[in-house]
């Protein structure tokens, strides 16, 4: 601002006619203000980049971490076939961290992202499919819906070979090509895909519709929304309108034809979601989206499965 004052005095000295002075001085002031804001913006961008570089040190190539804002980190597995490449979400509370789902379990999370375990997080499993629970045995405290607990205890069907996986899950490829291997690179040279399995695990905390989880300054409500599987759950942070939806809803073809799927239940879950007031949905697969898209996806499912 001091520069503007100096310029005003210079202008006063050199231009006796005052008609054009005021707009020019105001213009110069706005210009300088804009320049300052732009510089501050660049500085903020710079420090953001710097902070990200800090978390990069914890990463290996297998997992990708992205800052989703509001102390939420999205973790994904880019080397996994898109059918199984899931998101999981690391939430930081004042008292405790929570991880929603845990990926495929091909690479140990504790070695790849040690920071994830620093505050003894709880892992919450949206449902018992390999792409969401593979890494969950690494956590001491596991939460899920009781309808998924038995499958978790006996061992979730799993394979990295497409044909074997389809067979174990009861997926009908319906003439579509089946990927030979579900990962596009080996995580380490000696890795044996045939040795991959999801270890059986117990659930330490059973969750049902309406249960609340308080992480300190961050409270989440459990929504039981069956259909994809009987014990599929989503989590809603009401304060921010953030929904973590697992495989119940994402921006892609929704799977309701597995042996334990239930289309009638799925439709009821979608009717609920079509009317849910949220600001953002962080799903189990693909990108995040807003309430308008949530409603469109839910209504598209209801149309697709409607009897007409
Ligand atoms: Zn699933
Ligand atoms: Zn999934």
Automatic annotation (TrEMBL):
It comes from the Bacteria. This is Glyoxylase-like metal-dependent hydrolase (Beta-lactamase superfamily II). Keywords: Membrane, Transmembrane, Transmembrane helix. The keyword Nucleus does not apply. The keyword Membrane applies. InterPro entries: Metallo-B-lactamas, NDM-1-like, RibonucZ/Hydroxyglut_hydro. The chain crosses the membrane at residues 20-38. Residues 85-285 form the Metallo-beta-lactamase domain.
């Amino acid at each position: 601002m001091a520069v503007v004052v100096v310029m005003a005095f210079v202008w006063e000295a050199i231009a006796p006619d005052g008609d054009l002075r005021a707009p020019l001085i105001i213009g110069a002031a706005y210009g300088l203000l804009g320049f300052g804001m732009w510089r501050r913006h660049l500085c903020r961008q710079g420090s953001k980049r710097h902070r990200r570089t800090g978390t990069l040190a914890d990463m290996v190539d297998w997992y990708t971490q992205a800052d989703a804002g509001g102390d939420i980190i999205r973790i994904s597995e880019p080397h996994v076939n898109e059918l199984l490449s899931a998101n999981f979400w690391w939430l930081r509370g004042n008292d405790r961290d929570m991880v929603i789902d845990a990926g495929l379990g091909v690479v140990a999370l504790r070695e790849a992202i040690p920071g994830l375990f620093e505050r003894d997080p709880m892992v919450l499993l949206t449902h018992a499919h390999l792409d969401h629970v593979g890494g969950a045995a690494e956590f001491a405290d596991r939460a899920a819906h009781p309808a998924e607990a038995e499958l978790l205890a006996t061992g979730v069907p799993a394979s990295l070979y497409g044909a074997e996986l389809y067979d174990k899950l009861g997926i009908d490829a319906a003439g579509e090509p089946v990927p030979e291997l579900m990962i596009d690179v080996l995580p380490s040279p000696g890795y044996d895909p045939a040795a991959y399995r999801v270890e059986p695990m117990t659930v330490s905390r059973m969750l049902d519709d309406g249960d609340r989880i308080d992480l300190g300054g961050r409270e989440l409500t459990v929504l039981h929304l069956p259909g994809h599987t009987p014990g599929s759950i989503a989590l809603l942070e009401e304060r921010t309108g953030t929904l973590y939806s697992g495989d119940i809803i994402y921006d892609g073809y929704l799977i309701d034809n597995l042996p334990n799927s239930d289309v009638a239940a799925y439709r009821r879950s979608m009717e609920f979601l079509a009317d849910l007031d949220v600001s953002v949905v962080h799903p189990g697969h693909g990108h995040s989206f807003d309430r308008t898209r949530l409603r469109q996806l839910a209504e598209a499912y209801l149309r697709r499965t409607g009897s007409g």
